[in-house]
Design brief:
The strands form two sheets. Strands 5-4-3-7-6 form a five-stranded mixed beta sheet. A two-stranded parallel ribbon has the order 1-2. By secondary structure, it is of the alpha/beta class. It has three helices and seven strands. Helix 1 packs antiparallel against helix 2.
């Protein structure tokens, strides 16, 4: 991951607590699994040992990814968000011009994106298309199924 990762304080706190859990409890569980598999005999033909070592590698990769994400994170507070135009961490209510369906999304970093929670990534097609737009403007978004137009109805922090 490169570049700056803009997050809320709450999200950074969650990332840090997950990292702590992975480094302590997670590593201890994997060490125990490797130890148990090692006790079962010949390591060359021990599938449990191989699986435990692979799980350890994946676990360490996850830790490294999370550490990098935290290192490039910058906290943005709600009162620092410019609501005159669509920017990261603002909530934007948009209406699809074609079908008149209205939805509200919060524009967030890639690590925070969760469509079910109404959070879309700033790097997604819709996120990119909405950035910098003002209330009343129409954003033309190149989606996988073609060009979609969204009217910006409201922007809040």
């Amino acid at each position: 991951m490169s570049g700056i990762n803009y997050v809320t304080k709450e999200t950074l706190d969650l990332m840090m607590s997950e990292l702590t859990q992975l480094k302590t409890k997670g590593r201890a569980e994997i060490a125990r699994a490797i130890s148990e598999a090692r006790e079962k005999g010949d390591l060359k033909e021990n599938a449990e040992y191989d699986a435990a070592k692979e799980a350890q590698g994946l676990h360490e990769a996850k830790i490294a990814t999370l550490e990098n994400a935290i290192a490039v994170s910058r906290i943005v507070s709600a009162d620092a968000i410019d609501t005159s135009k669509v920017s990261i961490l603002c909530k934007v209510t948009i209406t699809n011009v074609a079908n008149k369906k209205t939805v509200t999304y919060q524009i967030v970093s890639e690590t925070e994106a969760d469509l079910k929670a109404g959070k879309i990534s700033v790097t997604s097609p819709i996120g990119k298309g909405l950035l910098g737009k003002h209330v009343g403007e129409v954003a033309e978004v190149q989606a996988p199924n073609g060009q979609v137009k969204f009217k910006i109805d409201n922007i809040t922090a």
